[in-house]
Amino acid sequence: METLKRPTVEEEFKRNPELTEDDMQHLRDWIKKQPYYPNAISDEDIVLFLHSNYYRMEPTKATIENFLTCRTHVPEFFSNRDPIGCKELRTAMGTVCMLPLEQRTPEGYGVLYTRLINFEVERFFYYDTMRLFNMIADLWVLQHGTMKGHILICDIQGVTMSHVLRIPPIGVKKFLYYLQEAAPIRLKALHYLNTTSVMDFILGLMKPFMKKELMDMLHLHPSVESMKKHMPTDILPNEAGGKAGVTTELYEKVLKNLEDHREYFLAEEKEMRVDESLRPGKAKSVNDLFGIEGTDMNTVKRPSVQEELQRNPELKEVDLQHLRDWYSKQPHYPRNFPDEDFVYFLHVSDYNLEQAKVTIENFLTCRTNTPEFFSNRDPIGCKELRTAMGTVCILPLEQRTPEGYGVLYTRLINYDVDRFSYYDNMRLVNMIAELWILQQGTMKGQIMICDIQGVKMSHALRTPLSGVKKSLHYLQEAAPIRLKALHYLNTSSVMDFMLTLMKPFIKKELMDMFHLHHSVESLKKHMPIEILPNEAGGNAGPIDELYGKVLKNLEDHREYFLAEEREMRVNESLRPGKGKAAKKVAEFQKRTEAGMNTVKRPSVQDEFKRNPELKEVDLQHLRDWSSKQPHYPRNIPDEDLIYFLHNNYYKLEPTKVAIENFYTCRTLVTEFFSNRDPLGSKELRLTMGAMLLRALRKIHQLRRGTIFLQRWDLLAYDDTRLVDGSTRHDERFIVKSRSGRCDDVTRSSDLTCYGQEVPEANPVRLKAVHFMNTTPVVDFILGLMKPFMKKELLDKIHVHLNLDSLKKHMPIEIFPNESGGRAGPIIEMNNKVIKNLEDHRQYLLAEESEMRLNLALRPRKSTNDLFGIDEMNKIKRVSVEEEFKKNPELKEEDLQHLREWVKKQPHYPKNIPDSDLIIFLHSCYYRLEPTKICMENYYASRTHVPEIFHNRDPIGCRDIKYTMETLHVVPLDQPTPEGYRVFYARLVNFEVERFIYYDGLKLFNMLLDLWLIENGTMKGHVLVCDIVGVQMSHVLRIPPVGVKKYLFYLQEAVPLRIKSLHFMNTTSVIDFILGLMKPFLKKEFMDMLYLHPTLDSIGKHFPVEILPDEAGGKGGSIYDLFSRVSKSIDENRDYFVEEEATMRIDESLRPGKAKNASDLFGIEGSFKKLDID
């Protein structure tokens, strides 16, 4: 709050003779007596409030109250106001322009001018625009202090009806209330410039909320000519007919001012809000400010209660009042439940009051506790919903059936299985159905038609059983509809599978409503098919046109969905007794505290009975031993200790080793043992549709349990082990490889870990691994595995071309039908496995969070300690010997000095390779002290600049993949004549929205890392940045502090010998880029900087031929060059993951004071203080 330079109180006293110290003191005292007010109200603020109210005391108090209350209760305008970090604000900055004009009117009034600068309707969001407006207005008012008056000019050039339709009436009401009752300004006029017929609609939105005083200030101007009567138009921007300058240049200054004061906005949001819990009397809410309709819930036009009373003679006012009274006594329910909603629930319950209460309870509880369907419902901002809109079509048909039933028709419109997400589709279905019900009001009944044209088994396999259960519960117990029939059209064999999923959760009443139709002919018996879309055999119109209207309706009511999610949920903490969700959590916590016993498993007593070798003394010994391991998870269940004992044949020391390996694997091998939510993980859902893992329940005469796999899956194996306990004398893995392909096998890069994990850590008595129906690809699989397998495991592997040889080891009857056995169809068996997984989701989530090691409490182990793999050294580096040969300045004594110095730095990463030390020495021209400083800055930067050096998994991080499609960075094959190597970067996709500054630098540095490691020391380095296609819109997305941080790293930390930095294809935008860079550039670096508008000038520095073809050279296509380096990045994924885990500073071990970002980049590096001149 102190980062802002504003007129002092003394200056305000000089310019305002009406301002008195007595009034100031009176307000200070009054503010102190308001316990709910923030403590950060300054004297300068008090001056503004007094001045805006012409020094009248009571109106000033009312304005202060309204100002603070609005800022607290209108988060749409006054929250998330980070001008750099908020993506919505960045979009608004490129859509609308707000300019506080430099010149004032002859009367001394300040002028704020606004207009669109991007006319794309999809980019216009009213609340984001108003948030930006208020931020710019805040700075304008604060930096200038009191003014004689303020004028607002809204230039509506380019505004269309499509823009205006995106303006929510409640948003207009909220802003006009703030403008008239709360803003500390002396508003003198409100001018609309370049008005068209659309202005009538805008005024229609505004007039209901405007006082006469504001109405009298309103002036409409079809052109700039009529505005001349009110003010000199020369003060306007050039584009508006003035002479004040070009809009883009003026706006750049405004945005820079905004970004420079980022810390002010972050602090203001934290410090300048009302604490309603301290307000004397009743706390205020948004309703107290704007009325019940101020909640955005009434933006949907729906039949009134009076209309419903007229159309439904069964509806009685006395029943409505009964529900109102009952509802008001439910403390956990959302406030302000509309009467229209009570009508719906009464209607669907056939006006049975008790049934209506049950349905309301189920409705609100489902919406609160089923976020998969009822959260993140922004029809414009949610990417998953936008994808669903292009995948599935949901149409409320315009015509009803002869009985008066409304019809909802659904079908796929894109058959790509990868786009099909059950939860996203159901979320969209519920949103469209919700609007349909609200806008239509009560109906005699509703019919649903699900056209499964194009639905395949692969779609059905992506449907989670738990999701089906939840949606059917909502449909039957909570949805406010009178369902009359459910028709499935164009059914095929996949319908059998779908019915199998649904039947366990369908009541008889719903089952009686089911109708299956192979074609539209049989549907004719139930309704006239003319009401269907053309593509379904009807005459209602093309799906594209019909669906376009539906989606527009959805987008038009965006504010409703945002408000509904915010305001219409149950508060379980207030539920009498204990909340439903809270009960589930408490029960789960109780079970986990008792030992992760959320799975029904054999008891310790059962295990003692079935295993005579099991002794209580051994079990107690393990309990005592595990309790003394400070890094172990707490409360390891006795059942688990029994598994480990059993599978190590009751030998204590091997059991301890197995326990240690088990938990260490689960902690460090995150590729196998993290993100194991069987419902929430999309990757696991895909795997469930691509593989089968089944424990064959029939145990043959040798009492050997058999695990049948088509592909690997440790998650399902865990669940099987827990349910079955340790009764098996041994276990066998059967791997079916008939469908295996080489491209499947090449994805299995973690066989090292898996080959170790099975024999060394998994609590099983492994007796055999069988590969059946083998093809030549199994030779490749075994070739991958053999280097990591002990002889004992190798002796247990059996390969079978067909079933005949497998018969010698076990009866084939225990296998699935498709594999020659009689155990049942694979699909049915697999469905049971998946259902078992879903049923035990809570166990898997709790296991991952609670049953891992605390590595900080023991000497650190890494994946290298487990598997003998040093990910940091898997990359082929230039050897130390080669470096000594190529660099005569390199001395062994210098290298030894650095080794010893590094050992004495307790906070440094362990095992820094000699090759890295050589690169640091070389980059600093073999001077020891600068080398040490460079290393310190290098590791500190990598630790304290997570924006660039964190989350660098090239396969797992979507942002990196996204950036690879936007930015190409390549080391060129040919060096310069001096032997310098060249690093070249350019955009390949010019869409502004795809450009993320920090992600681009992350990719740049990953490639730079690989380049340095693989090439070792080089004579020098040349960086070439080709800014072809870079626009001002890109540059405005670059945060100044990000430039500062990276230029510090480039100049002080990166172990390069930078010889020059070239910007190619420069345009006027380079001036702004240099403006960002210059404050942070040293003179040495500035002298290396070269700008090249064309290729001609760059040829003076190095041969143009070494550049990529697209840049005018002959060095090869940039796409081919980048394909090579991106492949290298993927191949070295383990290096990047391990580097991030092991090559960072531990500040807790640093001698003296720990460092942070401020120590590296100055106080302003963390935005704690900004001096504004």
What's the total helix number?
A: 60
CATH class of the largest domain: Alpha Beta
Main pleated-sheet profile? 5 strands, mixed
- Dominant shape: globular
- Give the end-to-end Cα distance, rounded to a whole number of Å: 16 Å
Structure class: alpha/beta
For the secondary structure, the number of strands is 20
Pfam families: CRAL_TRIO
Domain CRAL-TRIO: 86-248, 382-544, 959-1119
GO molecular function: phosphatidylinositol bisphosphate binding
Protein name: CRAL-TRIO domain-containing protein
For the structure shown, list the relevant keywords.
CRAL-TRIO_dom_sf, 1173 residues, 5-stranded mixed sheet, alpha/beta, phosphatidylinositol bisphosphate binding, Phosphatidylinositol Transfer Protein Sec14p
Structural description of this entry:
It is a single chain. With 1173 residues, the protein is of the alpha/beta class. It has 5 domains: 270 residues, Phosphatidylinositol Transfer Protein Sec14p (3-Layer(aba) Sandwich), CATH 3.40.525.10; 264 residues, CRAL-TRIO lipid binding domain (Phosphatidylinositol Transfer Protein Sec14p, 3-Layer(aba) Sandwich); 40 residues, no CATH class; 89 residues, no CATH class; 185 residues, CRAL-TRIO lipid binding domain (Phosphatidylinositol Transfer Protein Sec14p, 3-Layer(aba) Sandwich). Helices cover 47% and strands 10% of the residues. It contains 60 helices and 20 strands. Helix 22 links the parallel strand 7 and strand 8. This is CRAL-TRIO domain-containing protein.
